[in-house]
Every structure is written in C-alpha cells, then in structure tokens.
Amino acid sequence: MNMSELAQALREYPTFHAIVQNGKPYRKLDFTAGNSDLLTHDLSETVDFSNYVFDEMLSGSAFNGIGGYGEDRVIYRHRKHFTADSEKPRSIHLGVDIWAEAGTPLYAPLDATVHSFAFNDHYGDYGPTIILVHEIGETTFFTLYGHLSLSSLEGLHEGKTINAGECFAAIGPYPENGDWPPHLHFQVIRDMGNYRGDFPGVCNASDQDYYFNLCPDSELILRINV
C-alpha cells in the first residue's frame, strides 16, 4: 500500500466517529514563527504555556484548539527532546493536535485493535501513548494517540478490540502527559516499521518528505473545518 492508496481509502470512507465529542467549536491554532503574539511569550514553563493556550488562544476554554500538520513549530525550541541533536533539531509536526482540557474523553474513529502502547515518560515526549491498527477493505493503517492520561493505559493489551465510537482513553494532565498543556496528538501512520508504543511525531526539515510519505494529514479522518 502506498500513500496515495491510503489517502484515497480515507477520503472515500463515509463516516468517522468524532474523537472529541465535548460539543465545543474549534479554533485553529498557530505555533509557527508566523504567530507574532506567540513570540512575545516565554513558554518554557508548562503552567505558563497552558495558561496562554487555554486562557488567551482558546478564550477561556470556550473552544477546542486544532491544527499543526506540517507546521514548522517554534515551541520545540524550549524542549531538549527535540533539540538534543543539534545538527538535526526537530520542528516539523507530523500529526494534528486537538487542544482540550485534561480528562476530555476520546473515542475511536473506527473499529480497531490495539497495536501497542507505552508510557513515554520524558519531558517533552508523548507521555502515555496508544497506537491502534485499522482496516478499511484491504487497506491497513495505524493511528497514534499521544499525551493521554496514565489511566488510559489500564486494562490494555495488544490485540484488544476497540469498537468504532467507543471511549478508550482521555487527554492527560501535565506533567504525566509529557509535560505539555493538555491536548491530544493524533497521527495517521501508513507503516509502523519496528516501532511499538511510539513513533516520531516531529521531524527535522530535511526528513519531512520521508515522513509525510508515511503520515498523511490526519484531517482525512478528523474532517473538522475551521
């Protein structure tokens, strides 16, 4: 299966269940250098970053935030997890983020089984992470859910069935979610390779064509217009 076949299968699939169902409208968020307001804030402390997102960008949590696929994000400059390789710092975002309050339930967009899961417990990492595997006809692909609550991992086992529309996880609080403002990192993956419970969600600009070929825009499933 190549990227165009996966993208076509996702476009033609009639209906995906909403992953977040809290009834709030969506607002697109920009974490690139093009957001001049962002550059005036010191977001190195998670509490300040979270207050900026929810109080200012989302007008006191009146909205869910969404966006990020293919963004060249300046926010990673404060996270050693993305800058440890000084020659190839990572800043290109490969998923779509949904910014919503900690504890927000998450629902499976379509039938799935659990591929793998892990607690990626490093500052700036995914924190609790679940990867599901799906089939549409003869097309197999994966979805990754990062920055979850630790309780989301309870009772899981590889191969567990998750039904379409089933609540299977929740957005986690910081610091257990990788020490980020509460949000879901949602990513579609064509081929997991040897990864289990983890997969790059941010890459170096020089590698973006390779990863874009593995990870189509998650909006193909989310279908949220803002």
TrEMBL record:
GO function terms (MF aspect): metalloendopeptidase activity
InterPro entries linked to this entry: Cell_wall_metabolism_enzyme, Dup_hybrid_motif, M23ase_b-sheet_dom
Origin: domain of life: Bacteria
Every M23ase beta-sheet core domain range: 92-190
PANTHER family for the chain: MUREIN HYDROLASE ACTIVATOR ENVC, PEPTIDASE-RELATED
The protein, known as: Peptidase M23-like protein
Taxonomic placement: Bacteria, Pseudomonadati, Bacteroidota, Cytophagia, Cytophagales
